[in-house]
Amino acid sequence: MAIPTEGESIQIHSYKHDGHIHRVWEETTVLKGTRNLVIGGNDRTIVTESDGRTWVTREPAIVFFHGEHWFNIIGMIREDGIYYYCNISSPFVYDDEALKYIDYDLDIKVFPDMTFNLLDEDEYEEHRKQMGYPEVIDQILKRNVDTLIRWIRQRKGPFAPDFIDTWYERYLTHRC
């Protein structure tokens, strides 16, 4: 597997379990890239949905992908604080085309006060049946929801107090 290099601009591709493309983020700047970890930053990047519709992100964001965890985390920097959007997903892979992962529908939205909501449980159930998620995947995903909630409560990883600010400062140095 290739490793993205710091300062490189990459695309992020999200797929569904059946292999269909779900969403593409046009441009993210790599802030740290290793075999098991990619941290990136973007701001007002174009996002293309599976149906071809496009939209532009509204605020700067720091993205966190890990090669051993079945989730990824987006820290969105807004005027009233940092909001997190966490996708329950496969671990990422990176090739020369893009950073890629499978989105498994379940999401956790975290507010600046660190309260959170688990989202899209009905969508997950519908797709689990429709696409035939194996039982082992179902168990892995549910365990990773628990892990992610622990991280939120313990302020671990991207939820640590200065994590997003520190990486956002680094992102700004690449934009000059």
Automatic annotation (TrEMBL):
Residue positions of the active site: 23
Highest taxon of source: Bacteria
Residues bound to Mg(2+) 2: 105, 107, 120, 123
Keywords: Hydrolase, Magnesium, Metal-binding
UniProt-annotated binding residues for Mg(2+) 1: 87, 103, 107
Iron as UniProt keyword: no
Cofactor(s) the protein requires to work: Mg(2+)
Pfam annotation, one family: DUF402
A GO MF term: ribonucleoside triphosphate phosphatase activity
Swiss-Prot/TrEMBL catalytic activity: a ribonucleoside 5'-triphosphate + H2O = a ribonucleoside 5'-diphosphate + phosphate + H(+); a ribonucleoside 5'-diphosphate + H2O = a ribonucleoside 5'-phosphate + phosphate + H(+)
InterPro entries from the UniProt entry: DUF402, FomD-like_sf, Ntdp-like, SA1684
Every DUF402 domain range: 18-156
Enzyme Commission (EC) number: 3.6.1.15, 3.6.1.6
Protein's job: Has nucleoside phosphatase activity towards nucleoside triphosphates and nucleoside diphosphates.
Family per record: Belongs to the Ntdp family.
Name this polypeptide is given: Nucleoside triphosphate/diphosphate phosphatase
